[in-house]
Amino acid sequence: MGITGLSKLLGDYAPGCMKENEIKNYFGRKVAIDASMSIYQFLIAVRQDGSQLMSEDGETTSHIMGMFYRTIRMLENGIKPVYVFDGKPPEMKSGELSKRKERREDAQKELDKATEAGDSENIEKFNRRLVKVTKQHNDDCKELLKYMGVPYVEAPCEAEAQCASLVKAGKVYAVGTEDMDALTFGSNVLLRHLTFSEARKMPIKEFHMNRVLVGLGLSQDEFIDLCILLGCDYCDSIRGIGPKRAIELIKQHRTIDEIIKHLDKKKYAVPEDWMFKEARRLFQEPEVTDPADLDLKWSDPDEDGLIEYMCTQKNFSEERIRNGIKKISKARSGTTQGRLDNFFTVQSTTSSTKKRKAEETKGGKNKKAKGGFKGKPK
């Protein structure tokens, strides 16, 4: 779920924190990708005839093909992706997971009704709601990435937290995910729509954490409390407090602790045994693998391994897979040069101009003092 309504709130209160970009502008960038989010996108995607991709034995393979081609698209644009897979969910997420289970049970009941009525539109709608990323889906994609020469990380807990830690450590430039809580975990840069298909023609939205904080006038800890008020995966929020009221309260009182002290309890019911402090700590100190212990390496594709896995085991067309391998190899040879901004520190135009003008003024005064004209020049 991420953080409820955060993207819209930032658009309203801190529009300068986001810019739109084309994928080609990320040439040479390393990006940590939330693997589960990507796999989910591929699983709910259907072909034009309304069916999912299947192998001969009836196994769903949409996620494998999606991961293969979407990764190639990033590699062709000079991006070096590293996929991060979820570990065990934190205990605090159990409430959210229970809600998701209930929603799936409701969706199954609705699907049964739609199937009985022959309602194709609702059959597709509720089928999508029943999609869940499984361990097998993850294992399939890890196997694929290994043969493609693309690194992946198995997070001990939440993938977004591990992705954010890689950004903060300077291992990668940004987190690629649709969940806004990568910012709450402290990622300096968040990219949305990076793993969307090219056919959707949606620009990549790039959020910068420092501009978020400046735009909202908050510290990182105050921003975390705002996100908890908006609604996160780890605890309930105060019913009746929407985004506008949440930002007003945080700016006025700066912490949830102070908000509770001054809140009209008759108007706003604070959840009983509200675990906002535990949620705050989880965002501040998430369980992650130390990025210093992770050696991220991109290598040439294993052509024989890919053919065996994708064609022999998963029944994909050998011609298509070999064409894909050629694209990976070509992309690998074309991205050996780095970005210029990895080698040079670019000073702002304003500061450079001011410095130059100051030097010119100083130089002019010196010239005048040493050899200024007396009387009219000849």
From TrEMBL:
User: Which free-text remark accompanies the cofactor?
Assistant: Binds 2 magnesium ions per subunit. They probably participate in the reaction catalyzed by the enzyme. May bind an additional third magnesium ion after substrate binding.
Alphabetic keyword roster: DNA damage, DNA repair, DNA replication, Endonuclease, Exonuclease, Hydrolase, Magnesium, Metal-binding, Mitochondrion, Nuclease, Nucleus, Phosphoprotein
Offer an example of a GO molecular function term for this protein.
Answer: magnesium ion binding
Q: Which cofactor does it need?
A: Mg(2+)
Report domain XPG N-terminal positions: 1-107
SMART domains in alphabetical order: HhH2 (SM00279), XPGI (SM00484), XPGN (SM00485)
**Protein localization:** Mitochondrion; Nucleus, Nucleolus; Nucleus, Nucleoplasm
Similarity comment text for this entry: Belongs to the XPG/RAD2 endonuclease family. FEN1 subfamily.
Protein name in UniProt: Flap endonuclease 1
